[in-house]
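RECORD TYPE: inverse folding
INPUT: C-alpha cells
STRUCTURE:
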C-alpha cells in the first residue's frame, strides 16, 4: 500500500499527514498561532513536516517559506521569496511518495533546506543509518558528553551511531534531554515496532545529509515536551550563518537547483 499524504499550501506548504494504512507517521502539536503566522514571525512548532529554507536555525527562524502562503497548480506548489523561488511537485509512487523540488535564484546563492519532519515515534523506535557515517553534534548536547565542549565550536564531530560516545540511534523515553545532530547520509530508515519508514534525499552536486532532533522532554526550557525529528537536508548544518565550505547548497551558473525527496513504506536500510 502506498503512503498517503496531505499538504497545506495555504499555510507554508506544510505536510499535515503521512499515513501508511492506519499508521500516521507525522506528530502534531496543535497551536492556533500556526494558522496566523506571517514572514519574520518566530517559528510555531505545530508538528507535521515543515519546509525550512534558506536556513533552519538562525534568521529567519526555520527559514522564510514555512510562514508564507504557497500557490498550487495541479500537482505543483510554489512559493516566492525576495531571493529565490521554490517549486515542489509531490506524487504517490507504488510504495511511497516522491517530492521533486526546484529552486531558482542568482548563481552563487547559498542555502540550507530541510524537510523538518517531526515523527510520532514510540520509546522503542530506532534510527538506522550506515555505521561510521560522519555525524555532527550541536551545543544543546554539551552536558551529555564526557569531554568539555570546545570553546567557540559550532559543533563537534564523531561517527554514527555513537558520535563522541553519545548513542543516538535509539529514541527512548523522556529523560529531560534534547540533542541536535546532522548525519552525512543520503538515506536512513526508521524502525518503530513492526512499522518502517525509509527516507532518502538526492541532489546532484550538492551536499546532502539528515538532521536528527531528539527532544526527550529537554526543550523548550519552559513547558518542555517530547518531539522527534528525522529531517532530510541539503547542507550539513542547521544555521546557514555557520556554514563553512561545503556545508551549504549553492546555486550553479544555471540559476537552478533540483533535488528529490523519497519516502518509502518499508525498510530500505543502508
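DESIGNED SEQUENCE:
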Amino acid at each position: 500500500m502506498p503512503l498517503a499524504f496531505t499538504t497545506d499550501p495555504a499555510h507554508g506548504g506544510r505536510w499535515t499527514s503521512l499515513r501508511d494504512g492506519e499508521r500516521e507517521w507525522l506528530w502534531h502539536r496543535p497551536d492556533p498561532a500556526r494558522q496566523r503566522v506571517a514572514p519574520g514571525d518566530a517559528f510555531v512548532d505545530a508538528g507535521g513536516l515543515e519546509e525550512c529554507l534558506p536556513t533552519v536555525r538562525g534568521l529567519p527562524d526555520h527559514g522564510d517559506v514555512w510562514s508564507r502562503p504557497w500557490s498550487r497548480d495541479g500537482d505543483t506548489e510554489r512559493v516566492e521569496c525576495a531571493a529565490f523561488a521554490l517549486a515542489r511537485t509531490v506524487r504517490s509512487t507504488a510504495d511511497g511518495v516522491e517530492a521533486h523540488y526546484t529552486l531558482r535564484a542568482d548563481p552563487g546563492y547559498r542555502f540550507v533546506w530541510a524537510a523538518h519532519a517531526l515523527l510520532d515515534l514510540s520509546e522503542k523506535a530506532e534510527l538506522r543509518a550506515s555505521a561510521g557515517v560522519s555525524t555532527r553534534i550541536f551545543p544543546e548536547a554539551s552536558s551529555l558528553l564526557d569531554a568539555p565542549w570546545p570553546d567557540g565550536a559550532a559543533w563537534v564531530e564523531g561517527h554514527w551511531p555513537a558520535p563522541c560516545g553519545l548513542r543516538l540511534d535509539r529514541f527512548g523515553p523522556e529523560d529531560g534531554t534534547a540533542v541536535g545532530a546532522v548525519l552525512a547520509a543520503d538515506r536512513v530508515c526508521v524502525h518503530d515496532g513492526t512499522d518502517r519508514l525509509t527516507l532518502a534525499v538526492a541532489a546532484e552536486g550538492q551536499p546532502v545529509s539528515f538532521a536528527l532532533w531528539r527532544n526527550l522532554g529537554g526543550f523548550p526550557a519552559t513547558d518542555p515536551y517530547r518531539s522527534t525529528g528525522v529531517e532530510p537536508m541539503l547542507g550539513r548544518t542547521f544555521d546557514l550563518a555557520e556554514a563553512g565550505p561545503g556545508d551549504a547548497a549553492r546555486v550553479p551558473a544555471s540559476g537552478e537547483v533540483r533535488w528529490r525527496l523519497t519516502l518509502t513504506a518499508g525498510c530500505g536500510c543502508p
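NOTES: The chain has a mean pLDDT of 96.
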